[in-house]
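User: C-alpha cells in, sequence out, please.
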C-alpha cells in the first residue's frame, strides 16, 4: 500500500516563498548586469590573447560579460592597403542591439599612420571637427546612442619624461581629446575618460617593450578607471 505523508501547509508556503525569492533575486541580478561592448584599436585589444586586456579586466570589475571586438591596428577613417578586413574599421565593430554601454578607443592610428602626426588638420577634422558636430567619431557616437546604448570614449596614454615612437603625436592627441571632451560635456550619454595623467613621469612600466602599447599593468589600471566611472553612473 502507498503511504501518504501530510506536508504542513506552512512548510509548503515557506518552500514556495524561498523558491520565489531565488527567482526574483536571479532576475534582478540579470537586469542589473549591464550588457557591455568594447570596440577600438590596440589600446583596447592589447593582451587579449592572454586574457589580460582592458576588456578582460573590465569584465572582472563589473561582474558582467564584456564582448570585445577591438583589433590591433584598427582605424576610424584611415586605411592601409592591407587593412580591408571589417574588424579593422572601428565603426564596423559596432553592430547589434541591446547594449547598455559601448566602451571604445579610436583615432590614434588615423593620426599616427594616416598623417604621421604632422599637418594633420584635415585628418583631424575628418575624425571630429573643432565644433564637435561633424566627423567620424561624432557620427559613431550618434549611431551608438540611437541603438539605446551609452558610449564611453577612452583617451590615450601619455609618456611624460619618456622617449617613445609616438611622443611627437602628443599635440595632436591633446587636440583630438579636447574636442571629444567638449562634445561629451554637451551631449548626455556620451562620456569621455582621460588617462593622460595615468603614467607617472619617467615610469616605463606602463608601456610594452615597443613603447607604444600599454603594458598589462596599464591595461589593468585603465580598466579600473573605467569600472569606477561606470559604477558611479
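Assistant: Sequence out:
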Amino acid at each position: 500500500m502507498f503511504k501518504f505523508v501530510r506536508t504542513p501547509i506552512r512548510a509548503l508556503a515557506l518552500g514556495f516563498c524561498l523558491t520565489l525569492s531565488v527567482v526574483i533575486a536571479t532576475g534582478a541580478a540579470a537586469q542589473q548586469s549591464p550588457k557591455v561592448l568594447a570596440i577600438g584599436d590596440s589600446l583596447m585589444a592589447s593582451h587579449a590573447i592572454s586574457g589580460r586586456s582592458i576588456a578582460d579586466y573590465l569584465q572582472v570589475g563589473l561582474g558582467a560579460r564584456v564582448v570585445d571586438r577591438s583589433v590591433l591596428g584598427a582605424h576610424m577613417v584611415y586605411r592601409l592597403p592591407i587593412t580591408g578586413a571589417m574588424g579593422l574599421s572601428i565603426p564596423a565593430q559596432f553592430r547589434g542591439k541591446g547594449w547598455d554601454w559601448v566602451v571604445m578607443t579610436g583615432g590614434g592610428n588615423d593620426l599616427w599612420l594616416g598623417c604621421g602626426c604632422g599637418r594633420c588638420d584635415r585628418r583631424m577634422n575628418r575624425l571630429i571637427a573643432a565644433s564637435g558636430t561633424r566627423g567620424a567619431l561624432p557620427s559613431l557616437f550618434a549611431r551608438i546612442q540611437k541603438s539605446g546604448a551609452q558610449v564611453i570614449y577612452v583617451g590615450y596614454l601619455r609618456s611624460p619624461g619618456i622617449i617613445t615612437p609616438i611622443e611627437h603625436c602628443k599635440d595632436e592627441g591633446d587636440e583630438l581629446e579636447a574636442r571629444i571632451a567638449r562634445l561629451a560635456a554637451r551631449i548626455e550619454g556620451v562620456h569621455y575618460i582621460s588617462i593622460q595623467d595615468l603614467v607617472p613621469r619617467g615610469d616605463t612600466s606602463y608601456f610594452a617593450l615597443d613603447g607604444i602599447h600599454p603594458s598589462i599593468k596599464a591595461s589593468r589600471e585603465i580598466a579600473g578607471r573605467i569600472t569606477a566611472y561606470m559604477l558611479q553612473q
